[in-house]
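[agent] plan:
  1. take the single chain provided in the ticket
  2. run structure prediction with default settings
  3. attach structure tokens to the ticket
  4. add a short note for the reviewer (M.T.)
[agent] executing step 1
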Amino acid sequence: MIKTLSLILLIALMLIGSLYSQEVIFEHYESGVDFWVLLPYDALNFKKGAETTEYQVSLIISDNKKKQVTNFERSVLIIKRDWLSETAIPLQFNAALETGTYTAVLKLKNKALGEKRSIKKGFQVDHNYTEIGLSWIIAQKDGVSYIPSKVSPETMYPEVLELRQSYSISLDSLRIQIDNNKLMVNNPKNPIHLNLVPYLNKGEENKMKLTFYEKNIHYNLEPFLFSPWYSYSLRYNPSEQIAQLRYIASQNEWQELRKLSEKEAVNAIENYWKATDPSPGTIRNETREKFYQRVLLADDKFSVHKKMKGWASDRGRIYIKYGEPDEINAETYPMGRYPTIIWSYYKQNLEFIFADTQGYGQYTLRNKEIEY
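[agent] step 2 finished; step 3 output follows
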């Protein structure tokens, strides 16, 4: 039997003048509730000419009677480093909470620039514990702890690359496979703190798999690494997200989605992805991740200028729906014809023809009947 379970709350925080995103991840154990706040490094602001930036982070937990039950404060000093790009700065808090409904208020303030914002997010604590939490990969370098986006060449990681793992099951053993290297840990101590540096293949990217054993049950988990798709909610408001879902939603789903207000859209988006989750009950939704990645890539690849977003273009739409073409043929300067690009998808037996009819790089789909 294969199982995976953890609870996650994703919170997007918008600040005036720039956008921020925090992921607040909630895991419930007998010892209490663990809160992880993730600060994407690329969303942090530095004062001009400064080599450091400092943020004041507050997490305030109140019960359903609006009574504050606990408050966490943390001042975070972050250095400016190129290798921190596409990583997240993690903060961990723990609280012993009784069963009930709670509200978490997250506050973030940039001490140098004065930017600040507070948001609220509701959550529940019940008698069910998280069986196995996320497999956190925490790197440390130059005094900074961070979650990398991949276990990459040794120039990226420091003397410590730690696996941190909590669980509430009766765990017998843990197997860690890093490329061809295997490590077996019997009767691991809870929570697990294990330095993986000695098992890495230096100078190359390492692929990691984790298997947890509980008698006749085994749990397959992926290491929790920071992913660029976390910036999706950072870049697109609910109205844009609804518009993007039109590309993959059924006609009936779209008719319901298009009627919603922006406030209603937030819950509707979550419900849509829950209904389309290929692995319900697990922490990850692979379909959602793939969609987010395609939207972000489409925006980067096909945006002509700020008012002509790549995801809303014809090429962006086809890319989001079908992914990377198997073959691309282009006629950049054809005689007597518009510049043309042809995308071929062999498995679907599809061919899309795009032409730049205006001459400014905005290619439009010429054979739209093929798409539908």
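[agent] step 4 note for reviewer: Helices lie at 232-235, 238-245, 251-257, 262-275, 286-302, 314-322, 368-371.
[agent] ticket updated
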